[in-house]
Design a protein that fits this description.
mainly alpha; 2 helices; 91 residues
Length: 91
């Protein structure tokens, strides 16, 4: 007895497109960048630095980081970038 292949021609309509649900679906075209596509990946923070400072300065930085709900590294980085731009030296 000879096997017959499965004919899916009547079941699949290649002109149909996936329904736009806001969730990427298999077979859907990717959204161009800048139009709701993936966000650019942030810079990796793998470098570390040890800094000695007065306990009062450290406490002030920790308080500011808590108030801003940001990591201490972000607070220090913003301060350094601002300092460099005031001196005319961009990062």
């Amino acid at each position: 007895m000879k096997r017959q292949g499965l004919d899916l021609g009547g079941m699949i309509n290649p002109s149909n497109k996936p329904v736009d649900t806001g969730i990427p679906q298999r077979g859907a075209e990717p959204t161009p960048a800048g139009q709701g596509g993936k966000k650019p990946r942030p810079e990796r923070r793998s470098d570390q630095m040890s800094v000695r400072m007065r306990p009062s300065i450290r406490a002030a930085i920790e308080r500011l980081a808590g108030d801003e709900d940001e990591p201490i590294a972000e607070i220090v980085e913003r301060a350094i970038v601002k300092y460099l731009s005031a001196k005319g030296r961009e990062k």
